[in-house]
């Protein structure tokens, strides 16, 4: 049998019942559709709120805007093309579009959190100097989107839809044949390089940087900067929540992408597990909306609660207004001579 048959998933009735297979498949599609609706409407509301109130004057809102755009692209492009690819298996362009947008957002979101962590860390450690301004944050974010779009072009070139193989004489009749969006077998020599590069650049490096910076803040907490860090404690909690969300949703997707493109033996379980973990990856934007709602008095607000410089801290108590004493008119009598 042709070696490329290892890259096609073939399910027969004896291995997986058709009813259970259809039920599980429809549940995955339903989860994707619901995620798409929540991501489009939720992030459109966030983007509209930032634009309407002109909130890009704060560095935090610049980074939130970048993450919201990435989640909006997932809901409006990546998820619909993924669903259409599962049903319309005659084109490779849906596969390429789905992979490119998902890899693009998988690059933008972690590195946006990296930039956000670096900016807040520098504000804590260097309170008297304005090293990272809002304009520089906008420039870095724009540069990140350009870098992410250029870096992930390889996914458009290498990923393809595996063709359906004709039936082979002597083998049992196949009940259903699925197409899968995997790396093209014509570029076998490039598979390991790009998969390892994807693992290091898009996963290990950003999480290592964020973890290192947070450990620096923990170490500085036991020094003279303790009160300074307590002032920024709320935004540190926001960073931890966003980082933990990305870690939980990206790790399964990263692992299954690596496994399904390196293992030569495919199975029904691996095919459905790949689609299920892809759906879990798309739910990252929904959890981001929950995080925005929890930190609503900090996210998308004009007041910068965590950008107080040393020596410029406003008093925590209200200023006391002293009563104004009016001078009493003198009752001295003037002697008129």
Automatic annotation (TrEMBL):
- Main subcellular location: membrane
What is a GO molecular function of this protein? G protein-coupled receptor activity
Which keywords has UniProt assigned to this entry? Cell membrane, G-protein coupled receptor, Membrane, Receptor, Transducer, Transmembrane, Transmembrane helix
Q: A single GO CC term, please? A: plasma membrane
Name the domain of life this protein comes from. Answer: Eukaryota
Please give the InterPro entries that the UniProt record associates with this protein: GPCR_Rhodpsn (IPR000276), GPCR_Rhodpsn_7TM (IPR017452), TAAR (IPR050569)
Question: What is the name listed in the Swiss-Prot or TrEMBL entry for this protein?
Answer: Trissin receptor-like
Q: Which Pfam families match?
A: 7tm_1
Record-linked SUPFAM superfamilies:
Family A G protein-coupled receptor-like
Does Glycoprotein appear among the keywords?
Answer: no
